[in-house]
Amino acid sequence: MIDQSNDLAGQIRARIDSLTKPLGALGRIEALAAQIAALQGRTDPQMAACALIIFAGDHGIAGEGVSAFPQEVTRQMVLNFLAGGAAANVFANSLGVPLSVVDAGMAGPRMEHPGLIDRRIARGTRNSAVEAAMTAEQCAAALRAGHALAQEAACDALCLGEMGIANTSAASLVAHKLTGVSLDLLVGRGTGLDDGALAHKAAVLARAAARTAPQLDALTALAEYGGFEIAMMAGAMLGAAQARRIVIVDGFIAGAAAAAALAIDPAVRPALVFAHRSAERGHAALLEALDAEPLLDLGLRLGEGTGALLAWPLVRAAAAMIRDMASFSAAGVSGPQ
After folding, report:
1. For residue 331, how many other CB atoms are within 10 A of its CB?
2. Which of 224, 229, 280, 304 is catalytic?
3. 304 counts as catalytic
4. Is a pLDDT exceeding 80 seen at residue 37?
């Protein structure tokens, strides 16, 4: 999907090393700048606009009591996003990032709101503890919807967020089936389960995982255990990468979507920037399985794309560094001996 020529890589490295700083002095920002330049195929990459899309979906496995919050919170939080009151809104507004909200498949009747993008697949998924969460056709439709939304987005970098009660359960199961990481390392407290509730969640997820083979291909894992919002995020990552847009991957749920996108097409990798290491238990294990080193570690575990938004200034600064910083020769500064 993305051409990574050795000549371009050499030009990018030479450009970074020619700038008025000791070699490697900007650390991870230099690697980030090189990634952005390679993705765009130029040594003066543009990173002017960012957008956030939040996908909302409900999960049948919520009926097993795996979340500290009732399922209706998904719809209530979507109304909060649309009213501008959530953390994602506040962060996005402070950074000048437009925010869109997508109904990927919330439970209950269709929500009528002029600000809501309707890509509803169904009234939530089925209970993956006892049957496949969705059909293969529903999974394909969710991937296509996410792909199209990412390609339509007018931005250089795309943040993807999610809302869906019980989606840490879905993410744990998808990550487990794709990476082989033990559920013991992936199952966490989500919205704040106490010890007893966490043990119950782990037992439910172990029962769900036992329904299928130990490891699954991406489309099967998404259909058996995913959520509509997770499948749409995976599709959006594929679509954004195809359009050579950076995808700033948020926390655990978005990480599971990234694992699915990478399993579908490994060539998506150069577009992915992992924003942060979540405090949700499974995220560190998932990042390690994906060989991903995030930019930030702030103890976040909210989702909604909040961590991705906080990483956006670093992405923008990295592009500005390689594009605008003076070289030793242009600035008349003596270089290293």
Report:
1. 11
2. 304
3. yes
4. yes
